[in-house]
Design brief:
two-stranded antiparallel ribbon, 5-stranded mixed β-sheet, about 210 residues, Uracil-DNA Glycosylase, subunit E, alpha/beta
């Protein structure tokens, strides 16, 4: 599984609550990955997709962002349709899914209880995202896609930017002072899709928009 060069160590102990939850899951689900989930993609990618955190029985089980849960089904189906990925997505890291000029990561690398990281946990994990963006920007990074407002806010805080200057709106395009472009989308969660807040057409339009920007 390809990963970016800078990721949280598998035994990361920075967040006590997440460590305790990880240890509990290692007992409950001994076959799961149960560790900070590394990014999926290449350091040289032009697009970085930033989600919130691994799902308990998705990325926390498989060890690859968005792999194995409903959000991943939606994300990878859309990426395959729009040419950002090829191969077959089979919800396991041994499938033939291949990303094209894209890397996928999360603002928080460990699965949080009830899928809700605390503000302190988001802040504590932020240096990994900062290092990753800096590494990728030194090579080929041009566009960031934030899935959800928490991801959006985390990216802006990574750059020390005011949230009020770049409000989160679905399909918004923000030209950042550092030369990068930030695109927003509602998160492709089961709840957002089932309630119609994010439709298949809306999500496809986001990736078509990114293709036009690139």
């Amino acid at each position: 599984m390809p990963t970016c060069a800078i990721d949280a160590p598998l035994d990361c102990a920075l967040c006590p609550r997440l460590v305790a939850f990880r240890q509990d899951n290692q007992t409950k689900y001994p076959s799961f990955f149960n560790a900070p989930v590394p990014s999926f993609g290449s350091d040289n990618a032009a697009l970085l997709i930033v989600g919130l955190a691994p799902g308990l029985k998705g990325a926390n089980q498989t060890g690859r962002p968005f792999t194995g849960d409903y959000a991943g089904d939606t994300l990878f189906e859309t990426m395959l349709k729009t040419g950002f990925a090829s191969g077959n997505y089979c919800k396991v890291v041994s499938d033939t899914l291949h990303l094209h000029n894209v890397t996928i990561t999360n603002a928080v690398r460990c699965v949080p209880p009830q899928n809700k990281p605390t503000t302190d946990e988001i802040i504590t994990c932020r240096p990994f995202l900062i290092n990753q963006i800096e590494l990728m920007q030194s090579k080929n990074l041009r566009i960031l896609l934030s899935l959800g407002k928490i991801s959006h806010d985390t990216v802006l805080k990574t750059f020390g930017l005011k949230l009020s200057a770049f409000p989160f709106t679905h399909k918004a395009v923000h030209k950042l002072p550092n030369g990068l472009t930030l695109v927003d989308s509602y998160h492709c969660s089961r709840y957002n899709v089932n309630t119609g807040r994010l439709t298949e057409k809306m999500f496809l339009e986001v990736f078509e928009l990114i293709k036009s920007l690139a």
